[in-house]
Design goal:
There is one protein chain. The chain is mostly helical and 451 residues long. The chain is built from 22 helices and two strands. 66% of the residues lie in helices and 1% in strands. A two-stranded antiparallel ribbon has the order 1-2. The model has no long low-confidence stretch (mean pLDDT 95).
């Protein structure tokens, strides 16, 4: 039996777990109360239900019964199935469970509003598909439409990301999968594969028992509320597979292929979202945890250069685009939203994305990381702690940058999902899973989210 795994609730410090959850809940309540007051008095937050983008709108929908069934099934059978299934069937089951959970939550808002219409709204990618008839020409001219005062300026999400994000949907349209329905279905189907990727990484870098215990928490993530039909759900999967392939490479599994594949995906992330460059922090942690760190580096570097070289050859200047984006950010709501509120309210958003189980798990991992064995990374729990807290560090850097004021329930999904394996250290997982499900169901049924 793995000695790092919890054995009893009394030994694990349940009172301290609940205290951490209470503190996190207080942070959320403060963000709601203070944010509502700021928005009512000054209107500078640009969100209707602080700290989330959304509106208070109690509702049910066709996905409600399915969401209740999925939640009950994962709470009841998830931990035992995760322990009993062989590894590859477990990965498939986790992906299927995550898809079922994400689809059902999206359909609480109905097909049109919850899936097909999400990526067709005025700020979204599908609004500009027709402007990419000549892709090389569109890339060469991309930076000329980023600023708000530029002619035919891009919608907010197009301008706010490198063109790789938009090209995902352009290519879907080219192969006959055009429109919001196909785009939403693609995002959910591809995005939920992140669960399998994270499990692979945890298994290779920590151990299999911890990965198995983490599986139900990844499946029943409250963040699935925003994964459904959000392009950032797709970004979550790309970054997760980049890290998973790197974990395979540095632990000796076909390092040439996995190292090159990891580099290819890490390079691609730079052209999906500027903020995903912070995944270098998580990548560094993976290299530190690897048993064969040097051999895959050449393959990693070779793969990494492919996508930047391609976009540069086609005429897109990444650095100039980022400079213009910063200007565009402060031309819009980003220049008005108060840093002093969002610097901590963003963390309240993160609490809602990862849920109470993750908060309690982070408390436990924090204790592990300060333990006597942590410096030498002996044992699976310190290794898991380093991986999880590298994601938390990347998230904090994004927060301090001031370029993530609000909307972080969507923007930070790629980082937040790496916090979820913290639940693996919790005793009594069914009770914690129930808490995760209740939070997600309440959010999805009480608030009409903006993503």
């Amino acid at each position: 039996m793995n000695r790092d795994l919890p054995r009893t609730a009394s030994r694990g410090g349940l009172v301290r777990d609940l205290s951490a959850v209470a503190a996190a809940a207080s942070l959320v309540v403060a963000a709601v109360l203070v944010g509502t007051r700021i928005q009512d008095r000054h209107g500078t937050l640009y969100v209707n239900w602080p700290p989330l983008v959304g509106e208070w709108m109690p509702h049910t929908g066709p996905g409600t019964p399915a969401a209740l069934v999925v939640a009950a099934a994962v709470v009841t059978y998830g931990p035992s199935l995760a322990a009993r299934l062989s590894w590859r069937p477990l990965l498939l089951a986790a992906w299927a469970g995550s898809m079922a959970w994400t689809w059902s939550l999206a359909l609480v808002d109905g097909w049109s509003r919850g899936v097909a219409g999400r990526l067709t709204e005025k700020h979204e990618y599908l609004r500009v598909i027709g402007r990419f008839g000549d892709i090389p020409a569109a890339l060469r001219d991309f930076n000329g439409h980023i600023l708000l005062d530029a002619p035919d300026n891009w919608p907010a999400h197009v301008a706010g990301h490198p063109p790789g994000a938009t090209l995902v949907f352009v290519l879907l349209d080219r192969i006959g999968l055009g429109g919001g329905g196909w785009a939403g279905a693609f995002v959910i189907t591809a995005g939920t594969t992140a669960v399998a990727a994270i499990l692979i990484a945890v298994r290779r870098l920590a151990d299999e028992p911890l990965a198995r215990r983490a599986a139900p928490f990844l499946v029943l993530a409250p963040g699935a509320v925003w994964m459904g039909a959000s392009a950032d759900g797709c970004f979550t999967a790309v970054t997760a597979w980049a890290v998973a392939l790197l974990a395979l490479a540095v632990t000796g599994h076909r390092p040439a292929w996995t190292g090159f594949g990891s580099g290819l995906l890490f390079g691609a992330t730079m052209y999906l979202s500027y903020g995903l460059t912070l995944f270098a922090v998580i990548g560094a942690a993976v290299l530190l945890l690897g048993t064969r760190r040097l051999r895959p580096l050449a393959y990693l570097a070779a793969g990494f250069l492919v996508v930047p070289a391609l976009f540069t050859a086609l005429g897109f200047d990444w650095w100039e685009a980022y400079r213009l984006l910063v200007t565009r950010y402060y031309q819009g709501a980003g220049g008005v939203r108060p840093y002093g509120y969002w610097i901590w309210a963003n963390l309240a958003c993160t609490v809602l994305v990862v849920g109470p189980a993750t908060v309690a798990g982070l408390r436990r991992l924090g204790g592990v990381l300060t333990g006597s064995r942590a410096v030498l990374l002996r044992g699976s729990a310190p290794r898991l702690a380093l991986l999880v807290f590298s994601a938390f560090l990347a998230l904090l850097i994004a927060d301090l940058s001031g370029m993530s004021k609000a909307e972080t329930e969507r923007i930070w999904l790629p980082f937040a999902f790496w916090l979820l394996p913290a639940g693996a250290l919790l005793p009594g997982p069914r009770a914690w899973l129930a808490g995760q499900a209740v939070l997600a169901l309440l959010l999805n049924h009480l608030v009409l989210t903006g993503w």
